[in-house]
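for the writeup, i need someone to sanity check this before i put it in the appendix. the sequnce is what the collaborator sent (i think, or maybe the updated version? ugh). structure was predicted straight from it, no edits. if anything looks off just tell me and ill rerun, i have time this weekend
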Amino acid sequence: QLQLLESGGGLVQPGGSLRLSCAASGSIFSINAMDWYRQPPGKQRELVAAIRSGGSTNYADSVKGRFTISRDNAKNTTYLQMNSLKPEDTAVYYCNAGGTYVQGSLLHPFDSWGKGNQVTVSS
């Protein structure tokens, strides 16, 4: 069974930093994309950052220059380093991963979500 386990959220003051981690586990054959989304209170979920298996990245305009996404392919883990945090970064942050997993002798596609991690930026 595929699982995405997130960690690293919490309360931080404006201007502070946090690092989120998301580890994928299960019978994973390959992971193509690993992304971070967030859902602020009362708003829709939005893409924050994405990283492909080759290392290419893209970011929402609102976080460019402040957030950095990275991944450790050997550990099936992605990280989101968040610096210069602002109150408007307050949200539940979700990890998403897509790829293929092994079941028996067959490969199947997957697109999985973590349970979410609260990040609160407040003084």
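The CA atoms of residues 10 and 119 lie 5 Å apart. The first strand starts at residue 3 and ends at 7.
thx in advance!!
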